[in-house]
Specification:
308 residues; mainly alpha; Lysozyme; 2 domains; two-stranded antiparallel ribbon; 12 helices; disordered N terminus; Lytic transglycosylase domain-containing protein; Lysozyme-like_dom_sf; transmembrane helix; transmembrane
Length: 308
């Protein structure tokens, strides 16, 4: 039996060797695979050098505290080496930050809060299991309380301009109640009442002194990590050209104060199809508009020539 086993082992080794030789002979050369030099050819993983100073909305992180240092290091590592997601954030930021930034500025909200939208939704119209929707992940009750229409026919949480205005209202109220922009950001995730309750229970007045659950405890660190990475692409190993980024598509607004029975037909009047109309107006949830109240809606239409 041992002799048979030895013979079978030798046969198996010869077979595997033959397959390996065949694979080497048949494998295409680097020149055949890579006809153009790649943008980057470095797959090593490096420890990151944490900046000496980091801040959120002008409020410094206490990086001399070893707990804060390690939590910040974690988020920088996780988001730096999740390369595909990181590159998508660079691409989408180029398209959506120009819409978000002026609304934040108009409302007196620090520009850093645009990165809150990044970690909330990845700058997509995300849907959460809890019922939050859109780039700013607004819950139905919060949307309605702040003047958004939320129903099966129209859901203005998907309207980026209107949703950003609602986010601004929430953040202003949170800052007034809690006293800092950092706590206001935490409250966007943990709720005004929830953060206020924890501050009182733990006898502290600063986010970085709070013991919080996993999600809210990581929340501000994730925002700061995305701010740092998206502000320093080459430092964190992201390589791209300006033409690789997504571009904003100019639109004009068409005012509608009546019902629309068929958006496919409506779209054709402007030289586009229903799909393109929905891309620019995701808040229109059905293929028609009820509008029994004769409300004035502004429907975005892309300028001519952007869709062939």
């Amino acid at each position: 039996m041992q002799i048979i086993k030895n013979i079978l082992s030798i046969i198996g080794l010869i077979s595997v060797s033959g397959l390996f030789i065949f694979a080497v002979q048949e494998a295409p050369s680097d020149d055949e695979v890579n006809k153009e030099k790649p943008l980057v050819n470095d797959y090593k993983v490096y420890a990151l050098e944490i900046p000496d100073e980091l801040d959120f909305a002008g409020e410094d992180l206490p990086l001399e505290n070893p707990d804060i240092y390690e939590r910040m290091d974690r988020e920088l590592l996780v988001n730096t080496y999740w390369q595909s997601n990181g590159l998508l954030m660079f691409k989408r930021a180029q398209k959506y930050f120009p819409i978000i930034e002026p609304i934040l500025a108009k409302n007196g909200i620090p520009d850093d809060f645009k990165y809150l939208a990044v970690i909330e939704s990845g700058l997509t119209n995300a849907v959460s299991p809890a019922g939050a929707r859109g780039v700013w992940q607004i819950m139905p009750a919060t949307g309605r309380e702040n003047g958004l229409e939320v129903n099966k026919n129209v859901d203005e949480r998907y309207n980026l301009e209107l949703a950003t205005e609602v986010a601004c209202k929430y953040l202003i109220a949170a800052k007034k109640r809690l006293g800092s922009w950092t706590l206001a950001a935490a409250a966007y995730n943990g709720g005004n009442a929830g953060i206020a309750r924890r501050l009182k229970a733990q006898n502290v007045n600063d986010y970085y002194d709070l013991l919080l659950g996993e999600e809210t405890g990581r929340y501000v660190f994730r925002i700061v990590a995305l701010k740092e990475i998206l502000s320093n692409a080459s430092k964190y190993g992201f390589n791209f050209r300006s033409e690789d980024l997504y571009k904003p598509i100019p639109t004009f607004k068409v005012e509608v104060d009546t019902a629309v029975t068929n958006f496919a037909n409506f779209s054709e009047k402007f030289g586009i199809n229903y799909k393109i109309l929905k891309i620019h107006n995701p808040w229109l949830r059905e293929a028609h508009l009820n509008n029994k109240s004769r409300k004035l809606y502004k429907i975005a239409i892309p300028e001519e020539g952007y869709y062939k």
